[in-house]
Every structure is written in C-alpha cells, then in structure tokens.
C-alpha cells in the first residue's frame, strides 16, 4: 500500500468517526429529553457527568448531576404533561470533547383540562460534552430563554 492510500484511508476513518460521534451526541440528547417527557429521571440523569453544570437564567448555575436532577425535577413535577423539543442542533467534535448549539422549544400543561392554553418557552441551547468509557455525556448546558407564551401558572421557571 502506498502512503497516499493510507492517508486517504485514515482520513475516511476520521470522517466516519466524526459522523458517528455527532450521531451519538444527537441520540444522547434525544434519549434524555424524551426521558424528561416520560418523567424517567434515571435515564435523564445518566446523560450527565457527575460534575456537570447547568446554567439557566432564573436559576443561575447548578453544579453536579444530582443537584441538577433535583432542581429540574422540582420545576417540572407540577406539570401534567410536557414536550421538550431540540431544534437545529449542530455539533463540533474534538477528540474526547465536543460542543454543540441548538434551540429549545419547551411546551407544558399544568392542568389537563386547560391543554389548549399551554405554557411554552424557547431559546438557545449551548452544550458541552465529554466522552466517557460507556459513551458521551453532557458536562455543561447553558439554556437561554428568548421568548415565552402563555402563563407559567406553577411558577416553575422564575
């Protein structure tokens, strides 16, 4: 084999690895956010590193997977139903670290008989990830709120 052929082969392997990593990051987020909609806190928590950080305007910074789980559970528990949407996600992988950006669209109903009047909010996501022994994990999440619709009757996000 020529050196040029090995270089092409190695370049192909690097591109394939990058595509697989980006797919794994997207899958991690979808698995976690679908778990939130089902109140599956164990699955959602496993998406985070032990020392993760969540930055969300009204809450400031929350440090550690268990503290993040407790705060998000407290905020979302009063809602009868929720949908977490991740839109326009893109990722940049650099070895065992990655970053990503996207948009949030969160819709929640506090009272099932008032489902025609949900509370919604949207804004940017900014993610940081690390590769763990068993796959990618979320190490930092910054959430910005650019708009809201309806009334947050349970005052979960103030």
What does it look like?
By secondary structure, the protein is α+β, with helices and mostly antiparallel strands. It is built from three helices and seven strands.
* SS strand fraction: 35-45%
The number of strands is 7
Largest sheet: 7 strands, mixed
Which class do the helix and strand fractions yield? Answer: alpha+beta
Give the overall shape.
elongated
C-alpha Rg (nearest Å):
18 Å
Distance N to C terminus:
63 Å
* Unreliably modeled segments: none
Number of helical elements: 3
**Percent range of helical residues:** 25-40%
Mean pLDDT: 92
Order of helices and strands: HHEEHEEEEE
Keywords:
single chain; 158 residues; alpha+beta; seven-stranded mixed beta sheet; elongated
How does the SSE layout of this entry go?
Layout: H1 3-37, H2 41-45, E1 48-56, E2 60-63, H3 65-76, E3 81-94, E4 97-109, E5 119-132, E6 135-143, E7 147-149
């Amino acid at each position: 084999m020529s050196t040029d052929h090995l270089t092409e082969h190695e370049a192909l392997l690097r591109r394939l690895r990058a595509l697989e990593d980006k797919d794994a990051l997207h899958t991690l987020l979808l698995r976690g956010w679908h778990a939130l909609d089902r109140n599956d806190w164990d699955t959602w928590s496993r998406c985070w590193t032990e020392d993760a950080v969540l930055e969300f305007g009204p809450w400031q910074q929350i440090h550690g997977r268990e503290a993040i789980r407790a705060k998000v559970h407290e905020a979302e528990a009063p809602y009868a139903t929720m949908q977490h949407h991740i839109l326009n996600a893109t990722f940049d992988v650099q070895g065992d670290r990655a970053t990503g950006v996207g948009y949030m669209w969160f819709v929640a109903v506090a009272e099932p008989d008032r489902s025609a009047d949900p509370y919604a909010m949207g804004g940017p996501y900014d993610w940081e990830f690390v590769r763990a022994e068993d796959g990618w994990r979320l190490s930092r999440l910054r959430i910005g709120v650019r708009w809201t619709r309806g009334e947050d009757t349970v005052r979960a996000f103030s």
